[in-house]
Design brief:
There is one protein chain. By secondary structure, this protein is an alpha/beta fold. The chain has one domain: 3-Layer(aba) Sandwich (Rossmann fold), CATH 3.40.50. The chain is built from 8 helices and 7 strands. The strands form 2 sheets. Strands 2-5-1-6-7 form a 5-stranded parallel beta sheet. The protein has a two-stranded antiparallel ribbon with strand order 3-4. The longest helix is centred in the last third of the chain and has 23 residues. It is globular.
Length: about 200
C-alpha cells in the first residue's frame, strides 16, 4: 500500500482541535519505522505538527530484560518495555494537554539512557511505532491503529540483512527463533492484531 494512501486514511480521522495518537503496530521487520518516517514527512509537509516515538526507545536495561529465570520469549514479551514510564511521560501528558516532561530514551549501544525534550502542542499528531501495540498494557491509548502485516518468511529475510549487530546468519536466526518469533506468535494468537486495527497494510 502506498504511504500516501495511509496518510489520507489517517487524515480522514484527524481533527485538529485535539492531539491525535496513531499507533503503527506490526511484527519484527515489518517496516513500521519506515512507514512512521514517511507519514511524519507527509504531515509536516501539510503543516501539521507531528512527533514520532519508537517504543523500542522505552525498554529496560539488559540486566532486567535478559533474565534467565524465564524462557527467552517470555523475557522479550514480559520484561522488555517500560510501559508505565511511557504512559506517564508521553501518553498521559499528551492526552491531558499537559507539557510533556523530559523523557529518558534508551541507548542500546551503551545500555544507558539519555534525556530529550519534546514540545507537543495541542492538535499535534503523535505517531507511536512498535511491536505489540495492541496488548493489554496499551489498551485504548490510540485514536487510530495501523497494523503492518508482512509474512514471517519475508520479515526473516529482511532482518537477516538488517540485524547484523546480532552476529552472523546463524546467530540472527537463533535469536529470532528462540526469542522473537515465539513471542510474536503468542501476541498474534492472543490479540489477533490485524482484526483489531483500523487499517491493515
Amino acid at each position: 500500500m502506498n504511504v500516501e494512501v495511509i496518510f489520507n486514511e489517517v487524515k480522514k480521522h484527524y481533527k485538529n482541535e485535539n492531539t491525535f495518537l496513531v499507533g503503527i503496530d506490526g511484527l519484527g521487520g515489518a517496516g513500521k519505522s519506515t512507514i512512521a518516517k514517511e507519514i511524519n514527512e507527509l504531515f509536516e509537509a501539510d503543516n501539521i505538527h507531528t512527533e514520532v516515538f519508537h517504543l523500542d526507545d522505552f525498554i529496560y536495561p539488559r540486566k532486567i530484560r535478559y533474565n534467565d529465570d524465564y524462557p527467552q520469549w517470555e523475557q522479550y514479551y514480559y520484561l522488555q518495555w517500560k510501559y508505565d514510564y511511557f504512559l506517564n511521560t508521553v501518553v498521559n501528558p499528551v492526552r491531558e494537554n499537559r507539557v510533556v516532561p523530559s523523557i529518558e530514551l534508551y541507548d542500546k549501544k551503551n545500555d544507558k539512557y539519555f534525556t530529550v525534550n519534546r514540545n507537543i502542542p495541542k492538535g499535534s499528531i503523535v505517531i507511536i511505532e512498535g511491536i505489540f501495540l495492541q496488548r493489554e498494557e496499551l489498551k485504548n491509548i490510540f485514536d487510530y491503529v495501523i497494523y503492518v502485516d508482512v509474512p514471517e518468511e519475508e520479515r526473516l529475510r529482511r532482518v537477516l540483512l538488517r540485524d547484523v549487530h546480532l552476529g552472523d546468519e546463524i546467530a540472527i536466526r537463533n535469536k529470532y527463533e528462540n526469542r522473537y518469533f515465539p513471542a510474536e506468535h503468542f501476541y498474534v494468537k492472543k490479540y489477533n492484531p490485524a482484526a483489531r486495527a483500523n487499517l491493515v497494510v
